[in-house]
User: What shape does this take?
Amino acid sequence: MRSLLTLILLVSVSIVPARAAAEAPLARRPEVQAALAYLKAEEPRTLEEQIRICEIPAPPFEEARRAEYFRQKFVAAGLRDVRIDAEGNVIGVRPGRTLSPTLVFSAHLDTVFPAGTDTTVKREGTWLKAPGIADDCRGLAVMLAVLGALNEKALATEGTVVFVGTVGEEGLGDLRGVRHLFEKEMKGKITHFISLDGSGLRVVSGAVGSHRYRVTFRAPGGHSYGMFGLVNPIHALGRAIEKISRLEVPETPKTTFNVGRIEGGTSVNSIAQSASFEIDLRSPDAEALAQVDAAFRAAVAAAVQEENQFWEKRTRSGPARLTNRSNPVTVEIKQVGLRPTGRVADDAPILQAVRRANAALGIEARFEASSTDANVPISLGIPAVTLPGGGESTGNHALQEQFDTTDSHLGTQRALLALLEIAGLRTQP
Assistant: This one.
């Protein structure tokens, strides 16, 4: 009997610590602590990777070189079914014990900068300086670092994690990569989504929607002196922009407008035949976005009417007046971008998982709305969040963009914890 009791006691002693470890908060488990320490020690190499990525050009709609780099990295890291899909996203699968949850863990490949932009990274103290160094070379580097930590510390997950470098997140890319992922490539298979984007330690849980348009004014055009008095598309454009600049929008929900590009005309001594501008309207609230959209359209219509009426009154006779009557300035408004709005509920499990990760690392993060790849899954009701990659940055989307590496490892550590909180850490073989 004594031998049997001794055996039971020994078995109990061996089981209890394992069970206690499994039930401990995720961040306190020894294998996770080891992975977090690894990421902190590896941060200098993560920054070197960030630099390498940044120096591979990825202009809008020209992400192929950077995608191929990531395809090779995914293969080297042992991911399964590595591929570049029809839209240009690079995808690799790290299987879990099950397919539920299936977490997409992503960062975007593209930058806002055109081909030919010098993306050579310069170091000054803790700062890295180059166009795109933070948005989104940081997110891409964090994605690879987390993958490296999972492999180095042999962390297996209950659910499946799909690593993705998306295309078309910026500008007129209009989220084309992530749309393709949800609408075609992995339609119906994704249960959770994390986007790694930019710098800092805030949490993006709201989707700022946007309406983007190219507005084109047209008229016959002519010689600036000989046909003076013709309606002028550039003048109509100017009238429209002036009216748009005076639009009243709410501070809450934050609603914005911006004319970002203008073009048109033939020469300084020609009345233009066409002129256009591109405008971006944004808000996290669908109703507020619809209201500023209507106000923008009204401003454009009023500008066209004013241009036509002004020259009708000024030109009493002659070819200009006759031309204006039969060919007034006209306008075409073409939608070139549409990003959906939405918000993750404050008590949603995915946000609770991020809060646990924040608490484990002593991070006090703001929960905000922004326009990211997460807009698409949020609008579809799929749990999604965007996590910046730590550090801080200034000058995003400008040639003067720079990234401060101080304590940047915290962003990488949080990304790992969030992944494990959602996908689950596998404890049994």
